[in-house]
Amino acid sequence: MDVVNQFILVASGLLLLSILASVLSARVGMPLLLVFLTIGMLLGSDGVGGIVLADISTAYLVGSVALAVILFDGGMRTKIANFRVGLKPALSLATLGVLLTAGITGMFAAWILGLSWLEGLLIGAIVGSTDAAAVFGLLHSKGLELKQRVGATLEIESGSNDPMAVFLTIVLVEALVAGQQWLGWDTIWIFVQQMGLGAAFGLLGGIMLGVIINRVQLSAGLYPLVALSGGVTVFAAASVLGGSGFLAAYLAGIVLANRPLQSGQNILRFHDGMAWLAQISMFLVLGLFAHPAQLLEIALPALLIAAVLMLVARPLSVWLSLLPFRFPREEQLFVSWVGLRGAVPIVLALFPLMAGLDNAMIFFNVAFFVVLVSLILQGWTVAPLAKRLRLDMPSGSEVIQRVELDVPGQLGRELVGYRLDLDSPALLAGLPKLPGEVNYAAVLRGGKALDPCQLDKLQGGDYVYLLACRENLGALDKIFAANAETERQAERQFFGEFVINGDARLADVAMAYGFVLPAEITSELSIQEIFAQRFSRRQVVGDRIDLNTVVLVVREIEGDQVTRVGLKLSR
User: Fold this and answer.
1) What are the φ/ψ torsions at residue 464 (nearest 5 degrees)?
2) CA-to-CA distance for 67 and 248, rounded, in angstroms?
């Protein structure tokens, strides 16, 4: 009984310590994953805690379940609209990019460590996938929002490249266990089987989960549990039948979140907490499993492998993978540097240990060291780099309160609340005209509820509540949310001083604003046509064209057409 209580005390204390450490992380800019990993190492067998964790199966079980939860949550936060600009380049990075990264890194690892080429490729496969989801947490903690093309590409890549790395690792481990010198043609069939079954289970599982959540009447607190258990079930079922469970979990999350759901906001809030719990638990366990003393023995070759991975393999694979998609140079540079390594390489490094390979501990220690270097160097610099390359967008305003209304047959309706500041656009005239099917629910002034039908004007400090659909939130922000002077200055600094319609002829714009067009620019084209020519059909807000004395910056897009641009004077 005392042993059980001691275990509960240690586990809960570690969890609480890790959560509180996130406050320090936000202040100093340290990646949270590095905080969790460091705490685990400090409390491990070589640290001050002296906690011994030698059970590989336990570490693998915790890591696998945690990754399934994290990928399922990541899928639920991936907007289907991002697929327009991010799907193809992300899939290229997740397949060709991982293969190139693993190959280049693996061959160097084989040479520097004196291993066979298959063993070197195994190290490359283990460290080949990125953890861009960790980058988004870091960027959001800094209040940064990436351009849609860059953000969508990294977001989709982070969920879809893990299955490729898992596949390569399993194939190479099995080949080494069997004593093979070459990979057989059956590798192609295994790849098709894993990805095909993973995709099928993910898509069908997401659809079935959506049907269950919307048709079964449960207590509100049970819907998040249905989603969580369903996501893990999809992961496990796909894995048992030979498919990629990680791909299945990610796709199930995407399908589930991009359809109206009962208690949808509660599901997202619950899974946000579960994803944090999964990350903390996974990194604490993996940190406890590591031996810092052994890491020092391979520090020099592992540091060189990390350098080749970050400075050669990842940039080259990104350049080749994104070549057909005409990414601007600064975006390619950022995607290259955001190849952050996280939990996946450490979990994959457990595979050789469970298989009993001769050099398994070398593989694990190299992977662990590479992750540490990546979190320290890339994790600390990714936010400043986004600002330096001008890939961070001005943050939009948000509602102060959103309450989902779980009315049968009326999914997607919410109670939306705003507090009106003195510079809110809603104060400029009488009661603002509301878009679509939006209706006033209540207006609170001085602690009293007022009847909106009897009001002729709103005042600063009022709390306005409206019944609205999700698709109307953007329009409501423009009416009720404050557009503070600092926000307006940030917009002007990013988009420029003037606003121009996208169908305006470039020659007319140049004449009106008094600047000379570069010789290579066709002046008879409209601004829409110039952007379509430069960025193909994948223009996003924030795309820029430098015309020497002025810069055109996309402000608004409808479908595939640029409708409004900002004209920024070059300085």
Assistant:
1) -110, 125
2) 12
Query: Residues near 278 by Cβ (< 8 Å), separated by ≥ 6?
Result: 65, 66, 67, 69, 70
Beta bridge partners of 545: 552
Q: How confident is the model over 354-401, as pLDDT tens digits?
A: 888 888 889 988 988 998 888 888 878 887 888 888 887 765 444 556
Residue environment code for 421-459, b if the CB has 16+ CB neighbours within 10 A, otherwise e: eeebebbeeeebebeeebebeebeeeeeeeebeeeeebe
Whole-number Å distance between alpha carbons of 461 and 23: 31
Contact present, 370 and 127 (Cβ < 8 Å): yes
pLDDT of 288 above 50: yes
Q: How far is CA 289 from CA 49, 52, 292, 300, in A?
A: 13, 8, 10, 21
Q: What is the CA radius of gyration of the chain?
A: 26
Alpha helices in 322-472, H assignment, sequence order = 329-337, 343-348, 350-355, 360-388
**Which has the closest alpha carbon to 64: 249, 256, 289?**
249
Q: What is the DSSP letter of 505?
A: B
SS3 419: strand
Q: Going by C-beta distance under 8 Å and a sequence separation of 6 or more, which residues neighbour residue 501?
A: 527, 563, 564
Cα distances from 228 to residues 126, 200, 249, 277, in angstroms, run 27, 19, 10, 13
pTM higher than 0.90: no
CA 263, CA 228: separation in Å to the nearest integer?
Answer: 13
Extract the tokens encoding 317: 């694979």
Query: Would you say 538 and 149 are in contact if contact means Cβ atoms under 8 Å apart?
Result: yes
Domains within the chain, CATH numbers bracketed: 2-39+67-393 (1.20.1530.20), 401-480 (3.30.70.1450), 486-569 (3.30.465.10)
DSSP secondary structure string, 299-330? HHHHHHHHHHIIIIIHHHHHHHHTGGGT--HH
